[in-house]
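Check the record.
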Amino acid sequence: MPVKRGKRRKRQETLGHRLAGGILDLIDGFFRAVGTAFIGLLRLAGRLLQLLAQALLFLVRQILRLLCLPFLALYRQITGKNNRASRCLRLTGEEFEEYAAAVLKDNGFRRVRLTPPSGDQGVDILCERGGKRYAVQCKNYQGSVGNAAVQEAYAGMQYYDCDVAVVLCPGTFTVSARKLAESTGVLLWGEKRLTHMMQISGRKP
């Protein structure tokens, strides 16, 4: 009888150890799962806080930018920095033609080439875009461009068998030049158009 009781005790102890070990494993697994979930929540919360901080920083920058726009516009008007085209005035005539040709390429024009220095018939650059051939005359001097440039560009367009005539300059055009351009279909690309193209190009004269 004592032997049987000893066996029963050993079996009970073994069963108890297994049961206790299983319970401890369950508890350990539970706390591991809780810990992993907690760490995941902390990481998610940290990521959300990071995104929120970035959004707030972007919003603050945009608000400051909007608040500063009137002052920047006034500063550019005073200093003349809103007109990038005026920087071209430091170039010689030939340098301006070469620079204008590079800017035209950067703005999507193809087959851009300079005409010969002499006998150009009022056209300095020939190029193509959208299936049309452009004849461009460059005028790089301070002041308003007059009628003569429009007439030369129009005549050069016909000479080179082009579809569009353009007068390109870093300044403005006289009233009579604008009226003549409207009647002949010649495009006048002054300081605003040239500044825009220079911004797209990114080239400095």
About this structure: The chain has two domains: 1-82, 84-201.
